[in-house]
Amino acid sequence: MAQSANDRLEAQFAFLNEADRLKSVLRATTLVDGSRPENSGEHSWHLALYALVLADQAGPGVDINRVIRMLLIHDLVEIDVGDVPIHSANGLAHASVETTTAEAKAADRIFGLLPPDLGPPLRALWEEFEAAESPDARFAKALDRVQPVMANLRSGGGTWATYNVTYEQLEARVGSKIARGAPGLWEWVQGKAKPWFLKGKES
């Protein structure tokens, strides 16, 4: 049985109202001025802007419009699961079986609020981002790793200082993802990040 126009709008706004809760999910990363933690809604918007502005760093075959769509929805599961900082618990917490299972369950619930012609395609886009295998997803994942690096640099160290991150850990947890999706961007970011870590060792 086809959805009525009224039921369709009810479902669309149910999803949009639920998505508003992402603005209340606080991240470990602060604003670039260090004044307060950013929330996941702000993070998602900022990443979409990153994709728009840094599109020239994308590899062949990357569809920036798809990347922007991917980044706008990539953290919606944090409404249920919360943000798990990549540098927390030795960098393993974000990849735990428990977290992965909880995020999949959250994706079922949140994307399930949408009409059937909208929910499954957006959930598939979220899964594509998580897998980070397609050119679009690799670039999106690279930007997702770059943005906190830039915030940390501008805020005096941010989560690097909080979690006592080493440069080797940054390379393994962040650099590998950036280099895979945007190698030129990682080369530039390295030149900015490495001096910060060297300065910390000298002080």
TrEMBL record:
Keywords: Hydrolase, Metal-binding
InterPro entries: HD_domain, YfbR/HDDC2
HD domain sequence ranges: 19-186
One term of GO molecular function: 5'-deoxynucleotidase activity
Keyword Metal-binding: yes
Pfam family membership, one: HD_3
Protein origin, superkingdom: Bacteria
Hydrolase found in the keyword field: yes
GO cellular component: cytoplasm
Name by which UniProt lists this protein: HD domain-containing protein
